[in-house]
Amino acid sequence: MDTVITGLGAVSPAGVGTAAYWAALVEGRTLIAPIPHFDTAGFPVRLGGTVPGFDPHEHLDGRYVVQTDAFSWFAMVAAAEALRDSGADTAADPYSTGVLVCSGAGGVEFGQRELAALCRSGPDHVGPYQSIAWFYAASTGQVSISNGLKGMCGVLVTEEPGMLDALGQSGQELRRGTSAMLVGGSEAPLGSPFSLACQLETGLLSTGEDPGTAYVPFSEEARGYVPAEGGAVAFVEGSSDARARGARVRAVVAGHASTFSGVGSMDPGGEGLLNAALGAMARAGVGPDDVDVVFADAMGTPKADADEAAAIRRLFPRGVAVTAPKTGFGRAYAGAGALDVAAAVLSLEHQVVPPTPHVSDPPVGLDLVVRVARPTPLRTALVLSRGAGGGNSAIVLKHPDHA
Q: Where does the Ketosynthase family 3 (KS3) domain start and stop, copy by copy (predicted)?
């Protein structure tokens, strides 16, 4: 039984909704700007990709707003869109639909606020939701509660590859008997000074001050990545169930694989990412000539980019279109893998490869789509992802007409 995506939702630096997200991607729009949430004076990193003008009260019941952090808000809004888009009636059997939403940092802004109250005024001034709002699984729990879903629930804390791994795990849940899953990744790592300070220790963040040049992977000017917030959620189900209810299949999840290449490293040498891609392609039953576009991880540091480019060349000796649309808005950690998956689904639907913003001269031997979007027949997309600590994942998505 194939796993298929029948619903999609997104909250990104382009705004709320997949329509706004796709419009920004296909235009190659620059969405990176100074971080507005707090004074970044004294920080070496001052740019980010933030969700513009997001007011949770416009999208969520007030009781959920006070109980949760922004990373849960993004997940709940994206999940609501994915549910509407799927057309599924989950109320008929709430135990048949599960939720699996990923996060790498959890509710850091909420946590900083409550810890400040603790240090300033004592434990009596810490709010009752501190024990749950910061927790990585808060987004999964709130998506489940707010939509009345009582099936399998879980969270993966695997940073950027989380969404890819969650899609793979959801396929297993469907084979065990679950009817459908809401699967996603969401992150809000730019809402507090503490959160940004925690990210600095990796040494991977760009200190550039020009939004047009701060995040330029696969180029001589690469200096790291720009952090971002946001996320995406997909409604997935078995192909037979989707057909039975007449659902529109947006993409087929054809194959997934993950590897681990060492604590404290970001896949040194690129072997972990290469083997994840080989595993995903093997499970999808596709070869190099079957893949039409690769959505690159695009770390933005010279060594990591060179390793990824070498892995792509080894995978596709005859060449393949490569893109990294996240350079227009930044890497949103667990939200980044989810937004990359959403971008791949939308590209398959529209038969267009979005460009890699800000990069004008791709490296020799890499067919990186730059400057403008490239309309082209698309059957299969490969999404690559690396996370802090050495986790690597790859997923193959197919257009439903070519599955």
A: 1-399
